[in-house]
Amino acid sequence: MAGNLIKPDESGLTRTVAALADAEVLALEAVKGGGNNRVYGAALADGRRVAAKCYPSQKEDPRDRLGVEFGGLGFLADQGVGSALPCPLAADREAGVALYEWIEGEAVSATDPAARRPGDVDQALGLLAKLHELRLTPGAKELPPSSDPCFSGADLVAGIAGRRLRLGEVAEDNDSLRAFLSGKFDPALEEVTRRAAREYKAAGMDFDSAIPGRERTLSPSDFGFHNARRREDGSLVFLDFEYFGWDDPAKLTADILMHPGMVLGAEEEANFREGLADIYRDDKTCGARLSALWSLFGLRWCLILLNEFLPERWFRRVYADGGRDRETVQARQLDKSEAMLLRVEEGNDGI
Prior knowledge:
By secondary structure, the chain is α+β, with helices and mostly antiparallel strands. Helix content is 46%, strand content 13%. It folds into 2 domains: 1-102, Phosphorylase Kinase, domain 1; 106-351, Aminoglycoside phosphotransferase (APH), C-terminal lobe (Aminoglycoside 3'-phosphotransferase, Chain: A, domain 2), CATH 3.90.1200.10. Strands 1-2-3-5-4 form a 5-stranded antiparallel β-sheet, sandwiched between helices. It has a 3-stranded antiparallel β-sheet with strand order 6-8-9, covered by helices on one side. The longest helix is centred in the middle third of the chain and has 28 residues, at 175-202. The protein is globular. Residues 1-8 have low confidence and may be disordered.
């Protein structure tokens, strides 16, 4: 399986970056933090510094991450979104490398609300509001769906089933994973799916029908403080748009509020809830969809947290972040998944 993952030769990467930047590369410095791709800070002979992002080619995951991120950021830059996003500079699709604006500043704490600033939620909401406005521009129609979009309740259930099936294949050789999936996850999924379908029916909605285009939004998907940097002037820049595209605002809302990589303080969570509801206020069924599907979104996260059990995902993690002890990581992720399941079983927190 490892042979399917193509890692760039760093000397070749230097040549690629030099060609894209039209300048000699003085140094390449690996940047820590990415979970799927390698990112380097490239110092150029003309005094510039750029971010070089390498997107590995992998047969098991054929998604065009480079095309989605570079194209999406290009579209948003053309629409004047501004400094909240890094500017795309150049890309070599064959080499799987793209250059982006280098963001000077520091990472924003994802897990310590006290380390963040009062206006950070407003900055995040401001970007999401702008993305929602841009759904009406002509060029937006050409953008792809987000990664793993959920335009209906049935879409969400099908996506969960696909993830469960793949994890079931690897669980045959892992007693702990198999026991969790069959003994805890599957019964919860059955009950939560029935409840969601009942709530849809009670609200007069069709569980199987996709929401119309006017109710969809442009979603960064993996959005939050875990993917943000703070410029020296205090403004935030949001990174990692490789899953960007069309999706249900109910899914985007749930993912922000329950993302396991980000801890929100009580006031921050309340501000997000209120702000997101305001952004999507013209969608009269968004709140009902979010409430009905909230627990299913949580179960989806239970499975996403188990990605490290999948060989193809594990090699991507190793590619991006170097060597780690696989058994330790998997045990930690299984604990997180069980904690998410407990959160689901404790009640419905939807808006």
